[in-house]
Amino acid sequence: MSELVLVVALRAKPGKEDALRRDLAAVVEPSRKEDGSLRYDLFVDQNEPGRFVFVEHWASREQRDKHHNEGPHIQHFQAHGAGNVAQMEFAYFLDRVV
């Protein structure tokens, strides 16, 4: 197993920026406590307040997948907060070069 760094940007639906910020912020602390989570940070674009960017660092791809597919806080977001997302702008799965 090798470490995985993930960078994901989500765009809020117009008028839903505050709701999406709240919903996304709610997944940060539980995600940081998950097995294999080395870094889990949420950012907002200074020039585009409706664009939110996650920077995640996981001990393995398998642990990240478990988080994404089985984490109760992620499942809650999918059921109750994902409706405020207009689109996923990008998702980069990165391997460290040096």
Features:
36% strand; alpha+beta; Alpha-Beta Plaits; monooxygenase activity; oxidoreductase; AI-2_Isomerase_LsrG; 98 residues
Question: What would your notes on this structure say?
Answer:
The protein is α+β, with helices and mostly antiparallel strands and 98 residues long. It has one domain: Alpha-Beta Plaits (2-Layer Sandwich), CATH 3.30.70. Helix content is 36%, strand content 36%. It has helices spanning 17-32, 61-70, 72-80, and strands at residues 4-12, 37-44, 51-58, 85-94. It has a 4-stranded antiparallel sheet with strand order 2-3-1-4. A hairpin with a 6-residue loop joins strand 2 (37-44) and strand 3 (51-58). The radius of gyration is 13 Å and the shape is globular. The two termini are 17 Å apart. The model has no long low-confidence stretch (mean pLDDT 96). Keywords: Monooxygenase, Oxidoreductase.
Give, in order, the helices and strands.
Answer: EHEEHHE
| CATH fold-level name | Alpha-Beta Plaits
As for the number of domains, it is 1
User: Can you tell me the CATH class?
Assistant: Alpha Beta
Distance between the amino and carboxyl termini: 17 Å
The whole-number mean of residue pLDDT values reads 96
Q: Low-confidence spans: pLDDT under 50, at least 5 residues?
A: none
Major beta-sheet overview: 4 strands, antiparallel
